[in-house]
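Box 4.2: Ligand-aware structure prediction
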Amino acid sequence: MITDIEVNKPEPIAIGKKLKSFKQGTAVKATIEALKRGESILIKEFYNDGISLLHDLHTYLKLKLPNKSFLEQQAYRTEYYRLSNLILLEIVDQKLCVKKSPGIGWLEKFYSENNHFFLTFPQIQGLNSAWQWYQNGISIPVLRNKMHPYYGTYFPTRFEHLVLFDNWLKRYKGPKKTAIEIGIGCGVLSLQMIQHHFQKVYATDINPNAIVGLIEFMGTTKLSRKIELDFGHLFGKWEKQTELIVFNPPWLPEVHDLSHIDAAIYYNKTLFADFFCCGKKKTVT
Ligand SMILES: C[S@@+](CC[C@H](N)C(=O)[O-])C[C@H]1O[C@@H](n2cnc3c(N)ncnc32)[C@H](O)[C@@H]1O
């Protein structure tokens, strides 16, 4: 199925000027000094040169910055984030230019119209891990099949709550015509409900990647008729009452402006009040 929902992805960087580069044998200290001045550094030869520079950066910062108290750790992370994101990789024809680099399918999926750009090394690492998870799949104890989480989508790494929900679903004796899932993420809870014979789940998420990922994952299979998706806030466009409302919400109070994946973890002040306010009208009593 084709969708015109735009996914969140790292913004391509365009660079006109020649960049300083780093490879094995380049002076590490001078490179880190350049990063501290805000200069970008290009990894040109081997992918591993970038890994090695990130390692050197950690070693350098550990010596320079205290890293014990919460505030010190936060300052450490901020500085590491700033400097590491000045380390760049070049992408030509949707492939990394460096040797011995991983193949990352997201580059073709997300940047098919852009034949030359740069991304930061941490962004490439994020895309690479996400590609491995997506390609190889992740086994989740309560599901028959592996999940293939889409880039930038929350997926569970602990399973106690899923087992709890599964046990609850086993004992649930009520009607199973329809349910709503708010914040479907990679879809695990909805798939559990379908496994337990709910006929239809109406789901939402404010993260476009979750919606696009599931549209792609379900394709035109039977599942796509059982789980209907809406890219929207809380109940989105789903108006009708259902027998069950499921929401595994973000669990930490918001501390800063939400970035996309953070919306899976941090909630704003009004989320729960809004949820209970809209939800009241939507369950069958
Ligand atoms: C903790 S994750 C749970 C994902 C999935 N249901 C699971 O159990 O693995 C929370 C999800 O809720 C989504 N979310 C956060 N705020 C939302 C809102 N106001 N409306 C709809 N979805 C929201 C996030 O994007 C994220 O996918």
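In the box above, the bound molecule is S-adenosylmethionine. The pocket of S-adenosylmethionine is lined by residues 154, 156, 182-185, 188-189, 204-207, 210, 233-234, 248-250, 263-264, 271 (CB under 6 Å).
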